[in-house]
């Protein structure tokens, strides 16, 4: 999603996550899992817009802007080049359908979900396994990014309203190539945001070992 926001022409047909929303009703906790799109992740929260009508809950509604911790995500799905990836819960439901019901379901979505027994996990893993460690655009745009930093050096130390630096964002996205350029140009790897976290904190929390290694030097 980091790279999708930077594209002039979108590569994804759509991308969304399923969130477990809850509410105390009549002395018990009711939970509904609903889809959220326009997804953005800041290392702390997954933000987006709810696109389902709740069946039971009254504390959220279709069209609400929401922000939830990563732990509330119960599924994810995106589509690219005519294929859907993720959608574990969707495929579980399709598996219980008849062939005609699956065809009707897919037509309603406007997508081809393929074999309900097969969940495509990652585009990079399926098509370009060598790019699993770092997104290829991080590497391929190295020269342009270096020219950008040369022309706008203030961006290296600029912070947003929550104290995130460019180094924070590159670490969250797993972009080691860009991160190394920032460090070479004097980015402060000890800078903390309002959550008291450095870029290294996010790299470790998100399992980006290749990024954590660069920040630990």
Please give a structural write-up.
The protein has helices at 2-6, 88-95, 99-109, 123-127, 136-140, 142-151, 166-173, 176-184, 199-205, 209-215; strands spanning 14-25, 28-41, 45-50, 65-69, 73-80, 83-86. By secondary structure, the chain is of the alpha+beta class. The protein has a six-stranded antiparallel sheet, with no helix packed on it. A hairpin with a 2-residue loop joins β1 and β2 (28-41).
Give a quick precis of the structure.
By secondary structure, the protein is α+β, with helices and mostly antiparallel strands. It has 2 domains: 2-126, no CATH class; 133-215, Serine Threonine Protein Phosphatase 5, Tetratricopeptide repeat. The chain is 35% helix and 23% strand.
């Amino acid at each position: 999603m980091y790279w999708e926001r930077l594209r002039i022409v979108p590569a994804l047909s759509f991308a969304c996550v399923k969130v477990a929303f809850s509410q105390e009703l009549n002395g018990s906790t009711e939970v509904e899992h609903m889809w959220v799109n326009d997804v953005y992740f800041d290392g702390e929260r997954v933000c987006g817009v709810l696109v389902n009508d709740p069946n039971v809950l009254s504390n959220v509604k279709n069209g609400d802007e929401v922000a939830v911790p990563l732990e509330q995500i119960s599924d994810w799905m995106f589509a690219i080049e005519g294929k859907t990836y993720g959608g574990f819960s969707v495929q579980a439901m399709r598996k219980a359908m008849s062939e005609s019901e699956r065809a009707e379901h897919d037509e309603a979505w406007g997508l081809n979900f393929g074999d309900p027994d097969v969940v495509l996990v990652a585009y990079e893993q399926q098509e370009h396994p060598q790019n699993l460690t770092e997104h290829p655009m991080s590497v391929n745009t190295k020269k342009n990014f270096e020219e950008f930093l040369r022309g706008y050096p203030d961006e290296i130390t600029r912070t947003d309203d929550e104290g995130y630096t460019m180094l924070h964002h590159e670490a969250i996205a797993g972009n080691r190539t860009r991160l190394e350029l920032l460090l070479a140009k004097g980015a402060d790897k000890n800078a903390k945001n309002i959550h008291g976290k450095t870029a290294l904190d996010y790299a470790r929390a998100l399992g980006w070992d290749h990024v954590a290694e660069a920040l630990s030097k």
